[in-house]
């Protein structure tokens, strides 16, 4: 793996002429006014929901059905999120659409069902503007559905089948809007790279040319696409201070939401992933993960540029990761690092390292603040001219968030992010977001 070792630092501002400064200033004022309107809308929602707290407390305690002896029980819960985004165009990460500020409502419903001590089922349904903000005009779907069997009275063995989040890493366990101290995901989970999952290029020259283009989110992938709700089966459990998990899924970590259902991908090229965790004491949780599987979608092997005599299984995504969690008093710290390799047809091995370090501090009974540093470094591939070039542009991102949990039903957050890539072209260099979450 050949990676550039330098740590990126913010670039110096380039000299702009007076006209450019004036246009940029006008655009900033316009976007700032748009974002102010978004903040006002979210504040109105917060005010309206605060008045309904007594009603929500009463409803929340009644959203279940249970047998008289308690052997079977079904619980309904949910989250309603209203988010507002403002950013420098083009939109960063997994935010789709144009360059305007926008509102993103999302309703998530959760159904938990238990039968005795050994059977458990879970369903998550969502209504929103696409799994990723503005990826669709409107959408309704089942993001998760699973059946779990626990043969013993403790948690040492669990078998699960269905559509569910990956076992890799530690961010997935806290990725919903109520538990995530930020509004967006860490950089490795939403940074689009120049790897295409629906195409095969004839050589390294057109592949390397992608580094100078804006993200093509409908054609390129991320090292991990969010929580990766692909379909499959898993075996997991806890034995004293050790946690283990192994899963077989129909699609890889970098696969997009359109191919996560069990009927997609035809199960011809499964991905195997796993994690081992160690908890030396109540404060620490350390883990190591891996994932290996094909990342190209079926049909790519029929393209003229696809190498003769090869199959999709000859071009894999291989990912190895380490994660940590630390909690003490008012402090919580998380970190993850991912070493990922894509085997690219007619190009070779495209390597990258991505990581983040995140901390959250409780300012009191209701308020909290969070900081996160993210970075992604890219290796080099042959450039067909006797040399080597980085296959994508190194990047770093700083996230800062402030949140307030007003009641057990209502939470608000505001986040600012600054993102920078090597080179002149930037992708969403600044982002400001607000989020109001109603839990029931």
Based on the model shown, name its key terms.
Porin; 440 residues; 16-stranded antiparallel β-barrel; globular; mainly beta; disordered N terminus; 11% helix; two-stranded antiparallel sheet
Structural topology:
Elements: H1 18-50, H2 53-60, E1 64-66, E2 72-87, E3 102-115, E4 119-128, E5 139-149, E6 158-163, E7 192-196, H3 204-209, E8 220-222, E9 231-239, E10 242-249, E11 271-278, E12 284-294, E13 316-328, E14 331-344, E15 348-362, E16 367-378, E17 380-382, E18 388-390, E19 395-405, E20 410-421, E21 430-439
Question: How is this structure best described in words?
Answer:
Residues 1-26 have low confidence and may be disordered. Helices cover 11% and strands 45% of the residues. It has a single domain, classed as Beta Barrel (Porin), CATH 2.40.160. It is built from 3 helices and 21 strands. A hairpin with an 8-residue loop joins strand 20 (410-421) and strand 21. The strands form 3 sheets. Strands 2-3-4-5-6-9-10-11-12-13-14-15-16-19-20-21 form a 16-stranded antiparallel beta barrel.
